[in-house]
Amino acid sequence: MDSKLSSEDIRKQLLTMAVDITKTLDEHKIPYILTYGTLLGAVRHSGFIPWDDDFDIAIPATYQKKAIQVLSNISKYHFLSLASDDYYDWVLRVTDKSTKTTSKETEWEVYNHTMSREDIGLCVDIYPFYCLPDNAFKFKTHKFFTKVSSWLIRKSFAKKSNFIKKLGFAMLSLRANASEGKYYTDAGQIYYQPTLFTQTEYINFEEFKFRAPTEPEKFLESRYGDWQKLPTQEEIDKAIHYEETFWR
């Protein structure tokens, strides 16, 4: 019978993955920052949020293709992106080959065919942050690529067509070409300063240090509002991705 990981085991494994991944990004000069729940954990808990079971990183979308290329070469991990067959999530996902997870299979996870895949272990999620151009023509072009790529990717899921998805990913790559303007992601229409990836500092996370925005509290306030307030038990239950995690 496969051995179940404890909460401490999960954190150790995620930290190992995060160190490997951020080291690779640094070596290839791909900017990154901690984001979302991982950044919240760094500021509020100096490490993991007690119930968290993944690790969140952000990169500028202009580096997305390069990140896919270099992270795919880390042999001990499995890498998933829209360039992968039968994967429909816009988030880049590095998953651990030595672990496997059982998912709660929320509606979102079932839709994306991400958490219920056989090859999913513990994950480091990498969120591409896009630039919204200020220039009127570039703005319209960016919106066009955004709309068309989203439609193609939704269509590819409905048809289970990797060919349509590749067309969508090609349009998504054109969307990612914008390199000036405020940053945003598909995780909500919240806009962040253009200096998000250029003005960074190292922040403590457990026994390691990772890059973060220079004013992480402002980022967290934009994302969560009152980020210092602890969630209810119901909110905690919704935030947990996996029911159980095992060694393969």
Kindly state the mean pLDDT as a whole number? Answer: 91
Shape: globular
User: What is the terminal-to-terminal distance?
Assistant: 10 Å
- Which sheet architecture does the biggest sheet show? 7 strands, mixed
Portion of residues within helices: 25-40%
Summary, kept brief:
With 248 residues, the chain is of the alpha+beta class.
List the helices and strands and how they pair.
Blueprint: H1 7-27, E1 33-34, H2 36-45, E2 55-60, H3 64-71, E3 77-80, E4 92-96, E5 99-103, H4 107-112, E6 123-132, H5 136-159, H6 162-175, E7 182-185, E8 188-192, E9 200-205, E10 208-213, H7 216-224, H8 233-239, E11 242-247
Helix pairs in contact: 2-7, 5-6
Key attributes of the depicted protein:
single chain; alpha+beta; seven-stranded mixed sheet; two-stranded antiparallel ribbon; 8 helices; 11 strands
